[in-house]
Design goal:
It is a single chain. By secondary structure, the chain is of the alpha/beta class. The chain folds into 2 domains: about 5-205, DHBP synthase (Alpha-Beta Complex), CATH 3.90.870.10; about 230-315, no CATH class. It has helices spanning about 5-20, 40-50, 65-70, 75-85, 105-110, 120-130, 150-155, 195-205, 270-285, 300-315; strands at about 5, 25, 30-35, 60, 90-95, 115, 135, 165, 175-180, 185-190, 230, 240-245, 260, 290-295. It has a 10-stranded mixed β-sheet, sandwiched between helices. The protein has a 4-stranded parallel β-sheet with strand order 11-14-12-13, covered by helices on one side. A hairpin with a 2-residue loop joins β9 and β10 (about 185-190). α1 (about 5-20) packs parallel to α6. It is globular, with a radius of gyration of 19 Å. The two termini are about 30 Å apart. GO terms for molecular function: ATP binding; double-stranded RNA binding; L-threonylcarbamoyladenylate synthase; tRNA binding. It catalyses: L-threonine + hydrogencarbonate + ATP = L-threonylcarbamoyladenylate + diphosphate + H2O.
Length: about 325
Amino acid sequence: MAEILPESEALPRALDLLGAGAVVAIPTETVYGLSADATNGEAVARIYEAKGRPRFNPLIAHVADIAMAERLAHFSPLARKLAEAFWPGPLTLVLPHRGGSGIHPLVTAGLDTIALRCPRGFAPRAIAALDRPLAAPSANSSGRITATTAAAVAADLGDRIPLIVDGGATSVGLESTILKVEDEKLTLLRPGGVAAEDIERAAGMSVARGATGIQAPGMMVSHYAPRAAMRLNAGAVNPGEALLAFGPRRAEGAERAAAMLNLSEGGDLREAAANLFSHLLALDRVGAALIAAEPVPPEGLGEAINDRLARAAAPRGS
């Protein structure tokens, strides 16, 4: 089983393992990441092996700062403006890949773009000390519920990796927003921890939706899935179903639920985002065949929450 070390003590051990090409689970402000040296093909392959991840799904390369990111990608003035506004933080930028960057092709999955993010906390300290970017998808089996605690990582992947760095529960609780910047056009590839409205305000322009194909992580139709089936926008609860609630008002028949957890009693979308994956995981452990989810408003972070719920409820294998 994986060794679990608190963040305050883990850096030397993590650097030894990462430098040797091993995979280490690390905390970020969004979710826990399964990290490896992004310039080492064997190390990146170990991420795919640990997750059971399809090879066509690219990875995010995490950087210590904008200077490191500019060695990996071509930054337009708009891209740099967004990086300065939101980094470190939960925004991933998909940019034209710079030739000769040293990033292994497994990270980009054969695309001519690269997904870059500068996170907060332990991760940038490790990246700066290693002096190499880290590929770091979410620390969970591919397609399953994302881990927001070290304990959740250990329960899922503890027998596949050598070290988990315990930074406590993540503060954002959703993966990063992924934004493609191309010819001064912004396209939302995945909603996440930064609301599209905030990006539009910072950029002074609109963000397009409707991206198709696998251009970045988290774009598979079925993703973030519990073992139980899911039913969305539930106005009533059937006997035996578990209930993922939101806000102060309950779906009809909520008292019949096998178990119930509320994303936010007060209807706070930030609180709901932080609780989403841990609540899904807890309800999945109840053993109910189906989880009914009450409606979540679509504005702000609600866009990202609804995206994750839709992917969790999609037919498996799609």
